[in-house]
């Protein structure tokens, strides 16, 4: 498949924003409701969730470049009963709205207690809003992944691993950004977020490597026989049916061919996972955020390449018919 750069930025930016939001809520839960020491001030969470909201907004802006008629974008939510895309379209503004409320409540310092636990810790309104926003973000990861996982005729996408990897890569990039943010702010949450980011990055690398291996051994359900509706034992294609290029031969083939896909696969494994993991491990127990900032930049570049490979490696079933000359 030919990747659309607007979709690359859409899924990467929104995924990082979701992961950052979940990282902030996780840290607040552990340090405020859990057994840990007191956490950060409301301003820390407000600015962090504002950054998450900015990433979500940038992803939405990128999505408009993918629309043929942006003025009709509202129609994409009409089929929410059957379409994962419609559910995603509905959930994105919901996550944005809950993130905005979470940020405002922290910024204004309005923290009425909703529940008191046995250990003396309290659940206040910002924490409750954070739980709601994080839950919506997790469901949004599922919706985004299912847009591609439900496409049965692209075997590289049609797997639960697509949803798992969308989730883990979003958490990995979000927690890494949260760790860098905590380091920049000299927060007590720094090491907690660094450790979580390292675990998420290693887990995301393991599952994505498994998916790469799985995709290399995919068996297609269709063949050249079924593509043209004949059962002749020997079929050889000598032309793709066009004198020149067409929509079918451009939009459903990977730019640069298999060699480009292999090269960028190596790049995203290194830049998106291995290098950030090494930098995160090196920064454990330290101070500041210089190494973490480099990890964020490397991971973002690597995940953009990963998303390009994800789309480019998807083999559309119509390519059985529109092949190059033998």
Task: Report on the architecture of this protein.
It is built from ten helices and two strands. With 326 residues, it is mainly alpha-helical. The chain has one domain: Formate dehydrogenase/DMSO reductase domain (Formate dehydrogenase/DMSO reductase fold, Up-down Bundle), CATH 1.20.1630.
Nutshell version of this structure?
This protein has a two-stranded antiparallel ribbon with strand order 1-2.
Strand share of the residues? under 5%
Q: Going across the biggest sheet, name each strand in turn.
A: 1-2
Order of helices and strands: HHHEEHHHHHHH
Structural class: mainly alpha
Work out the number of β strands: 2
What is the mean pLDDT?
87
Characteristic key phrases:
2 strands
Task: Write the topology of this structure.
Layout: H1 5-33, H2 42-64, H3 84-108, E1 113-116, E2 122-124, H4 125-149, H5 160-184, H6 190-215, H7 224-228, H8 247-251, H9 257-283, H10 290-312
Antiparallel strand pairs: 1-2
């Amino acid at each position: 498949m030919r990747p659309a750069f607007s979709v690359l930025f859409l899924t990467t930016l929104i995924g990082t924003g979701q992961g950052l939001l979940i990282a902030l809520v996780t840290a607040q839960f552990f340090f405020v409701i859990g057994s840990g020491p007191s956490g950060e001030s409301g301003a820390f969470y407000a600015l962090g969730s504002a950054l998450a909201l900015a990433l979500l907004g940038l992803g939405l802006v990128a999505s408009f470049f993918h629309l043929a008629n942006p003025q009709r974008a509202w129609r994409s939510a009409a089929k929410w009963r059957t379409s994962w895309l419609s559910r995603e379209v509905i959930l994105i503004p919901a996550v944005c709205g809950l993130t905005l409320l979470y940020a405002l409540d922290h910024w204004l310092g309005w923290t009425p207690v909703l529940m008191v636990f046995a250990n003396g810790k309290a659940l206040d309104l910002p924490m409750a809003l954070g739980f709601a926003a994080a839950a919506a973000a997790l469901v949004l990861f599922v919706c985004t992944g299912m847009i591609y996982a439900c496409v049965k005729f692209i075997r590289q996408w049609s797997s639960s691993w697509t949803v798992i990897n969308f989730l883990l890569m979003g958490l990995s990039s979000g927690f890494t950004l949260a760790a860098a943010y905590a380091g920049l702010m000299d927060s007590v949450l720094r090491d907690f977020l660094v450790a979580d980011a390292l675990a998420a990055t290693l887990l995301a690398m393991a599952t994505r490597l498994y998916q790469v291996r799985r995709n290399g051994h995919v068996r297609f359900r269709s063949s050249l026989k079924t593509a043209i509706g004949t059962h002749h034992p020997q079929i050889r294609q000598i032309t793709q049916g066009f004198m020149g290029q067409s929509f079918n031969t451009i939009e459903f083939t990977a730019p640069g061919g298999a060699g480009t896909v292999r090269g960028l696969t190596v790049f995203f494994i290194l830049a998106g996972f291995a290098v950030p993991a090494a930098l995160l491990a090196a920064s454990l127990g330290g101070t500041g955020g210089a190494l973490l900032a480099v990890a964020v930049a490397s991971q973002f570049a690597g995940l953009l390449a990963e998303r390009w490979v994800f789309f480019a490696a998807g083999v559309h079933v119509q390519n059985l018919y529109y092949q190059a000359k033998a």
